[in-house]
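Students often ask what a holo structure prediction actually looks like on paper. The answer is less mysterious than it sounds. You provide the chain, you provide the ligand, and the output is a string of discrete structure tokens encoding the 3D arrangement of the protein together with inosinic acid.
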Amino acid sequence: MDRLKPFIGPAEISEMVERVAAEIDADCSMSCPVIIGVLKGASFFVADLARSLTMDFELDFIQTACYGMRDEPSAEVLIQRDITTEVKGRDVVVVEDIIDRGHTARVLTQHLASRGARSVRLCTLLRRASGAPGLKVDYTGVSIGEGFVVGYGMDYKERYRGLKGLYMLEQDDG
Ligand code: IMP
Ligand code: MG
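The corresponding structure tokens follow.
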């Protein structure tokens, strides 16, 4: 049985979305950036963020899968679905649900730079305080500790994405 412990409620999520959107607006409004949501986990976050931005932008999505156990130092990130937008010479903002070890963020930054993006900024709702210390993240909703988070687009084995708030997953033994 999975147990879900309330972690961050919808009102607090909305406040984070508004703050992050204002920060992105302030930095990027001159260049009509390409906002790239990382599927599937960031789909709700990027949809809310996009509605809170006042600037002009283009929206695209990319889907990744990360193979490798949580305690392994390296992992393979596979791009399962690529963007269709031409990013050459454009400013890009990658929107993630959670930056954990930062493998996805690093691979996507390289991928978009190799496509000729003028700049690649990273935006995430949640950032694991312990993970990826050297990684520069431009926009963060909130920094969190350990524990597996679900809801608001984030899953455990494809479940729980539809929850309106964020929850900590606690698994009973047996
Ligand atoms: P990375 O280690 O930063 O590359 O994170 C890879 C992916 O792991 C994230 O985009 C999430 O999809 C997933 N992930 C990491 N921690 C959690 C969590 O607490 N809940 C749900 N997904 C997570
Ligand atoms: Mg996931």
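Residues 127 and 164 are 19 Å apart (CA to CA).
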